[in-house]
Amino acid sequence: MTKPARRKACKPVKSEVFREYCASSSVHGVRYFDSHERTTCERFWWLVVFLLSMGGCGTLIHKTFSKWEEAPIIVTFSEKTTPVWEVPFPAITICPEAKVQAKKLNFTGQMSALLEDLRDNGPNMTMDPAIIGQLKVVAQLCNFLFHSQHYYLPSLNGTDEDDIVSMLKNISLNRHRVKAFCMFDNFHYECNDYLKETITEEGICYSFNMRPEDGIFRPGAVHDEFSYTEDWLGPNNSSTRHAPDPSPPIHASGAGLNSGLLLYLQQNLSDIDYMCTGFSQGYKLMLHDADEYPQVSKRNIRVPLGHEINMALKPQMIITSQSAAAYGWQKRQCFFNYERHLRFFRNYNQNNCELECLTNLTLALCGCVRFSMPHAQGTQICPLLQWDCMFQAKQFFRPKSNVSHEFPRSVQDTVARCNCLPACTSIHYDLEITQSSLDIERFFKANGLQKNYIYHHFAFTSLEIYFKESHFITSKRTELYGIVDLLANCGGLLGLFMGVSFLSLIEICYFITIRPFSIRKTRSDRKPPMAGQNDANNSLLAVVSKTD
């Protein structure tokens, strides 16, 4: 058979399939396309209506798909409340504004003597280089105003600043005298077992309920020159008790003052120094997760001397459902611990990630890191001469689009690699703070202690930290539009505009693929006899008729 003949044979098949589909299709409007039963005007009108309906349906389906693609996750309230005894009590880091003991280093007095010596003798100063070295170490803890007024200090020759932490520990406050009294959960836990001396950018601080160092940092990731956290072994340490408390983080047994932390702090008045830290004196307090290393200068609560501070905590916890966990972090906008590896920290959270990123950024920008930052063996510690660079590094800690192109490529790449999204399970605390003055003078007089040494030489501060309510509402990241919701919405739109269902799509595939072959096969089975056969049959009929 020639090609034109084949085309002629195929044409009726296609036409028959189309007419049959129009007659039996479940898609609305298609039956009016049959040319045998409708005029051209009718068929054109229905074609326009059909195309408009299809366009409207496609537009709405595209919007539904875009919504599913861009924002498939929503944060809602959880179905159940969470009791406070199921979440850890927050870690609390306290940093005194007074950085050193006056009897070991009179900072203001020595700075005044240094300035006088520099003014009188110029480069031929007579001050002990060891004192200059101590001043330069303590100056790393001072505020920006101090550095703007004493800009000459970094360029002076003193002892090396390589072992900053050891020098700070040697001249810092007596840690056993900072705490006057401590009680947690009605003495259910021994406070001294959970107080740790912690190295931060504010110097030597004291942390309650924070994990030990090996529970925060990865093994072998940080150097072994000093410990970032050390147990505060007071007179009532765990070695004197029969049953040691569980390892931190510990949990409160409920809400209210009796289940919280009561801490009395004392400050030797002779150690107070206004030159380094500025106008206010007292403490900086930070609440954080037990596995988060504190950055007190980033966020803190100011606690003045001689006051009673009452903090009622209301946890704000957010978790991620299993349905949302199936999405990538780009859509969830949070990281699970297994998705985001940190070089120095065991557990991922946003603040640990930002601290590690700031460390990498400082190293890329300054060639060294601050003494309080986690770093590997052999990394150089920044001297006071690099203070401006360390301060500037914080300003660069922002998205890549905001970082000027004049900075080195390594700095831009470091910022771009940060990507510190929140953890998929995280908790923070809303606070209700009240405070009142402690009338220590009248208290001592009422108890006949007017001439007591402590009253005349120490300032006291009281902290009460507890959960406000026994239950709180948890937020949850959950799936807003899943694949089932997407199919349901798309199917509803197709049914509304065109009457299309899943079987309608199968029907279209059937008429395109299977039905044409079925029609051809049926026609071939009913093929008429050949011309020779017809002549023989006619001759036989003629013979039979003559015989008759």
Q: What would you call the structural class?
A: alpha+beta
Determine Rg (CA atoms, Å).
Answer: 40 Å
Query: Any low-confidence stretches, pLDDT <50, length ≥5?
Result: 5-9, 235-243, 400-404
The averaged pLDDT comes out at 82
What's the overall geometry? elongated
Terminal Cα span: 43 Å
Into which percent range does the helicity of residues fall? 25-40%
Count the DSSP helices: 19
How are the SSEs ordered, and which strands pair?
Layout: H1 3-24, H2 40-70, E1 73-83, E2 91-96, H3 107-121, H4 129-139, H5 144-149, H6 164-171, H7 175-178, E3 179-184, E4 195-200, E5 203-208, H8 213-216, E6 229-231, E7 261-268, H9 274-277, E8 282-288, E9 301-304, E10 307-320, H10 322-325, H11 329-332, H12 350-366, H13 387-395, H14 409-416, E11 426-437, H15 440-446, H16 453-457, E12 458-467, E13 471-479, H17 483-498, H18 502-525, H19 531-547
Parallel strand pairs: 10-12, 10-13
Antiparallel strand pairs: 1-13, 2-5, 2-8, 3-7, 4-5, 4-6, 7-12, 8-9, 10-11
